[in-house]
Specification:
The structure is a single chain. By secondary structure, the chain is mostly beta strands. It has one helix and 14 strands, in the order E-E-E-E-E-E-E-E-E-E-E-E-E-E-H.
């Protein structure tokens, strides 16, 4: 039987900030934005929580959930490891980024461990307070110049070239009904993602902030 380690409850971090709510108008996804990401094929949102894998790396698990209102499905868009991406800067297609889980401060991560259900590459959440290592970097694959809110994208793990995917395998207790998220080597409908709910920093807000500081 696979054992899971479930630490005690953590403080819930509320998502607040400046910017436009998802759905207000189409536009680019920007650094500093806090978003929920939907796997289009399986209709589940990218999710994490303080539950560790009982096999493989033993790191914090990453899953897909069908619930729309789960606060553990929020991720912050950031620059790749050791790089700063200023708030409000549009994310370009082909750019490497990190996705930091809001409630636990760990980054979306992958490595050469086998995922527990499908036997594909494990995807986990790793690091502390938003700082992990180079295996937290993901390349945004999309058409056009920028990652746009109403467009579908893929996320390719920058170090192993695996694509962030869901193929439908479902966990039992203690995370009953949640879907496995893993890395796959080939592209198909299982690795298409789309931004849903979120808070977005507008590029214009970045310019206004720069102008404000210049006047001080």
């Amino acid at each position: 039987m696979r054992r899971w380690r479930v630490p005690g409850p953590r403080l819930l971090i509320l998502v607040v900030g400046l910017g436009a709510a998802a759905g207000s108008e189409p536009g680019p996804v920007t650094c500093g934005s806090v978003v929920k990401l939907l796997n289009v094929r399986h209709n589940v949102r990218l999710h994490s929580h303080d539950v560790r894998y009982g096999s493989g790396s033993g790191q914090q698990s990453v899953t897909g959930v069908s619930a729309v209102d789960d606060s553990n499905s929020y991720w912050r868009v950031r620059g790749k490891t050791s790089m700063v991406c200023e708030r409000g800067t549009p994310v370009q297609c082909g750019q490497s980024i990190r996705l930091t889980h809001i409630n636990t401060g760990r980054n979306l991560h992958s490595h050469h461990f086998t995922s527990p259900l499908s036997g594909n590459q494990e995807v986990s959440a790793f690091g502390e307070d938003g700082e992990g290592d180079y295996l937290d970097d993901w390349t945004v694959l999309c058409s056009g110049t920028y990652w746009v809110r109403n467009g579908e994208v893929r996320f390719k793990h920058s170090s192993t070239d695996m694509l962030l995917s869901v193929t439908g395998e479902q966990y039992g207790r203690p995370i009953h009904g949640q879907k496995e998220v893993h890395g796959m080597s080939y592209s198909n409908q299982n690795n298409n993602w789309k931004v849903m709910e979120g808070i977005f920093m507008k590029p214009s807000e970045l310019l206004k902030t720069d102008s404000y500081h210049a006047e001080l």
